[in-house]
Amino acid sequence: MPNHNGSISQLKIQAVNGAGRGERTDKLAVEEPLEIRVANLSGYRSGYQSLAVTMRTPGQDFELAAGFLFGEGVIRHREEICDITYCIDPGEPQHFNI
């Protein structure tokens, strides 16, 4: 069973080399999906729109989302971002979407 701690997970594996085979612990990079949604605050069709889903190592989600928006040309200046939060949609399970 994996031991998950942040962006690194430890897992027991069967390792094979010239001396034979044996069990040992190996470290794996953990990746999880992150959905980035943008809010349309204009009077026309207000609400949220899913912009992208990306795989990332956990941590610095807000910085990743802001950099993604800039890198994809969605924004040109940081002042265009009003707020970054985790989504809290009533009746929908939280999957750490931004």
Provide an overview of this structure.
It is a single chain. This protein has 1 helix and 5 strands. The chain has one helix at 61-71, and strands at residues 3-5, 8-17, 20-29, 32-40, 47-56. A hairpin with a 2-residue loop joins β2 and β3. The longest helix has 11 residues, at 61-71. The chain starts with a strand and ends in a 27-residue tail after the last helix. 4% of the residues are buried. The model has no long low-confidence stretch (mean pLDDT 84).
What characteristic shape results from the CA principal axes? Answer: elongated
Q: How many β-strand runs?
A: 5
Helix residue percentage = 10-25%
Rg computed from alpha carbons, rounded to a whole number of angstroms: 19 Å
Number of domains: 2
Report the biggest beta sheet as strand number plus sense, adding barrel if it closes: 3 strands, antiparallel
Order of helices and strands: EEEEEH
Q: In terms of structural class, how would the helical and strand content be classed? A: mainly beta
The CA-CA distance between the termini, in Å, is 29 Å
Adjacency order of strands in the biggest sheet: 1-2-3
Q: Count the DSSP helices.
A: 1
What portion of residues belong to β-strands? Answer: 35-45%
Low-confidence stretches: none
The overall pLDDT average reads: 84
